[in-house]
Design brief:
The protein has a domain of 332 residues: ABC transporter type 1, transmembrane domain (ABC transporter transmembrane region fold), CATH 1.20.1560. The strands form two sheets. A six-stranded mixed sheet has the order 6-7-8-3-9-10, with helices on both faces. With 618 residues, the chain is α/β, with parallel strands linked by helices. It is 61% helix and 9% strand. Strand 7, helix 20 and strand 8 form a beta-alpha-beta unit. Helix 1 packs across helix 5, helix 5 runs antiparallel to helix 11 and helix 5 crosses helix 12.
Length: 618
Amino acid sequence: MIPRYLSVAFSDERRERLHIRRQLFGLLRDGGTVATVLYGTIQLALVIMPSLTALATAAVVSAVHGGPGTSRVVVPLVLLAATLIAAQVCSAIQFPTMLVVQGRIDLAHRERVAEFASRSATITVLERPEVQDLITTASAEPTTWLEKTPGQGATAQLEVAVRYLGLATTAAVLVRFSWWLVPVLFIPAFAYRVLSQRQWLNHFEIWARGIENHRRYQYWSRLAFAPAEGKEIRVFGIDDWISRTGQNHGLTHLAPVWEDDYRSARAKWLESVLVFCPLVFAFLVVGFQTAHGSNSLATETVVLTAAWAVFQTAGSTFDVVIQSAIPVMQAYNKLTDVLCDDEPSRSGTAPSAVTPALTFDKVGFRYPGSERDVFTDLDLEIEPGRLLALVGMNGAGKSTLIKLLAGLYAPTAGHVRADGRDIAEIGYDAWRRELAVVFQDFVRYPLSVRENIALGADADQDALDDAAREAGFLEVLERLPAGWDTPLSKERDGGVDLSGGQWQQVVLARAIYALKRGAKILVLDEPTAHLDVRTEFEVFERLARLARQATVILVSHRLSTVRQADRIVLLEDGRIAESGSHDELMSLGGRYCEMFTIQAERFRSGYDDRLEEGELLP
């Protein structure tokens, strides 16, 4: 007797799979009414076609044996020809129609995944490893043959339903002529179906168990062709080592797969028996009856054609495709549960038409999964229209403070306020429209210069020119082959690669452009780390002028350039250790003074702390 908890678990799993099968069937609406109906009609025609062909063939045979005369044969021949032509037409348009339906379903599905992923007001939940895994799986970007998309699963679900309808049609034809053939053919046909599917699923599981070695094999294979890694491969002569390592992972993965292939090939005799014996029995009996006058030749033709169609229809492997698409839908359903109600405060009303005063009110924060508090009872006020510099050692909490200000994380204690209102109350979407942020790990989009700076906003050319000038990017812009329309990627026609410093100027121009489009707070996290000291100083002077129009919050590891800030805040161990102007902090003789003196000595000795990556490559 099966234990109750096992039967419940099995029942729950079965209900989930049935629910997902219905869900896949429902996805067909995303394929478009015309394309989906056309594809369903094609599938229906293809499964009914064997029965129609059998009937048409029987009509031709009956007409031929009915006596001399051409006229009685013409109509059956025309019907048979029309049936065969229709079958060829349906076969020809089946595949492109299927691709259209699958493509539309997958596009709509991925749009929903992207919508759910962006629905979370903060990025806290998105950084959880289990959520990242769900997003990767639900995105349905197959990397192996055993991964199927929702579009493939939906069309396979439709095909299974139509195949069963075809089997019912074939059974009706057999019952009309020789009813006893239904159990004789259908029982072994379904046994054949179960056996073949079991072998497929077993092969599927064996292949899936070695997926980690397969991914490692793919990684080592990509290394052999990657341009960047190609330099070291040649310099260090490690091509043989890379090849051997990749092959070892590939063989480790495929050895049990090949063994199962051999085992399946040896077991094909049973499938052959299940197909061969019923068909031979049916053919012999019907042939014997026809030879002795019990059946007509037309009846024999119908029965033999329909009998073969039973095994053709039952032997389809569409259920395997559905099984491969189920993990995608499982991940999608779990993702919706996780993300739907993650953060209620997304939209709202902007705080005011003027630059707001910012306040960190006893803010505490701890990263999810961490046991260490980054901030505890942090109090900080930022006056509007001022330039505030945040400095400190790595890990002091500078970048975390900016992410809290941008509403990317919610404080675990306390509040971040704008003009006295909690930014969560304002609404994160509305609040972020007040900000222009340059993160240290900024994104390099493979788009044109104009698109990289405007980022989907209306392109005001005058504002773009001003932003490029204030970011110090105009000189680079003049060297680009297509100016503002130059793609910033060597992978695009006419594209170029930029150095780290040049990219930093692009991203700085991006933030300044947002400022000119209405943002009131400019936040810059190490915006000049790739620039030399002189260029950084020039950029900083421009930022100081921008502070007259908006609040500027600057994070920098170089203390020599932040000395002109209206106020400098030194963070240390998640707290404000010192605060004041450069002169005030130097007079204090504390930690800031010590750090500034060390950096000044290093600069005088010729040390260059730029993070450079190369020059503009046309």
